[in-house]
Write the structure tokens for this entry.
Amino acid sequence: MKFYSTNNRNNIVGFEKAVMSGLADDSGLYMPCSFPNLKSLVASIEGLSFQEISYDVIKNFVQEEIPPGSLKNIIEQSINFPAPVSGLDNQLGILELFHGPTLAFKDFGARFMAQTMGYFVRNEETELNILVATSGDTGSAVANGFYGVEGINVFILYPSGKVSPIQEKQLTTLDKNVHTLEIIGTFDDCQRLVKEAFVDQELLKKIRLSSANSINIARLLPQSFYYFEAFKQLPSNGKKILYCVPSGNLGNLTAGLFAKMMGLPISNFIAATNSNNVFTDYLKTGKFMKRKSVQTLSNAMDVGNPSNLVRIIDMYKNNIENVSNDILSFSHNDRETVEAIKEVYMKYGYVIDPHGAVGYLAAKKYLESTDQSSFVLILETAHASKFKDIVENSIDKEIEIPARLASCLNEEKKSVILSSDYNDFKEFLLYFR
Ligand SMILES: *Cc1c(COP(=O)(O)O)cnc(C)c1O
């Protein structure tokens, strides 16, 4: 399979190039040149494991660039936790995407990308250095994904004192090839340091750098696996199936659209947004108006300029009617989010996180406007315990922290404190050479 750039359909590369460069050289995002027809996979899906499904999907995009044995190995190392569906009632279900090491769906993409990059650098003499600036969540998924992958060093930069205590523990309790840099500054400082490194010709002569950006096609493709895995678990009652996706940068939604393109019988998608409702407005007006993000309780969705929107516009050939035929979108605020966490707990006994709660609100809004013939599956993107205080205050009850998170809370923080001065950062990177 080849991949083209959203800025130029003639700018075409193979899978390895697309993965290792992340962004196209014309600054476009990579898109698959075609989608396989997987109707036969869908027809036989009941007998397949999550890993078998994942392999059957990904092999079409990778083809001869990774041999079957190695590709299976990558899947086994990355898609190694479940994505169970939990039913709420006969019109609503929850797809739990938080069973990975950092308790959020980003583990799927980050782990697959890390293993894939590890494969591509396996015979190289010099180590690859991945730089990631994080304001919290993405960093821990990426750090965990690359943890122990040979031939790759990871440098995670986070703003000192500006991530939650749980997030900080998740970021700073890994060792081996993961180096956590606590920057005395803001998230913007962290991003600036990373950007400066990528254009520092003197540094680039000495060390090999790459990013592990969320726009990397190797993070997007594996997110389509669980749309299939979820479908396998749905009751076959003849209802129309909708997936409701709590959305920020729209990567998760885009991966779902990929699954539909491959033949998964999804009737529609619902993009649930918080007060950062650029996409909801785009569907209403046909105009993409990026704006400054505002802080909300579902903070992983606080995005004012969703990076994957260009992919969606590209897929639908810039035709807003076609987009609206497949995707609906509803926006809800923090007050409603808190109420929804409470409601889901009271009504169903289910403890939902603030992101899933925004999904619940959108799903409910849709169901109010339709008859009994739809089934909406809400993607629960994070475990409620990652947002312990908000959730406990909403449901007035203590919630349990899963063992895989609790264990890192008892470990000692290991980080290197650096100023936000570029020269300090550069010196640190060179020291590792
Ligand atoms: C990243 C994230 C989202 C948003 O996903 P996008 O792919 O950026 O739309 C939603 N919920 C959680 C918990 C996340 O970490």
Q: What stands out?
A: The pocket of pyridoxal-5'-phosphate is lined by residues 104, 106, 137, 246-252, 300-301, 355, 381-382 (CB under 6 Å). DSSP finds 20 helices and 14 strands in the chain. Residues 106-120 form the longest helix (15 residues). The first strand starts at residue 3 and ends at 5.
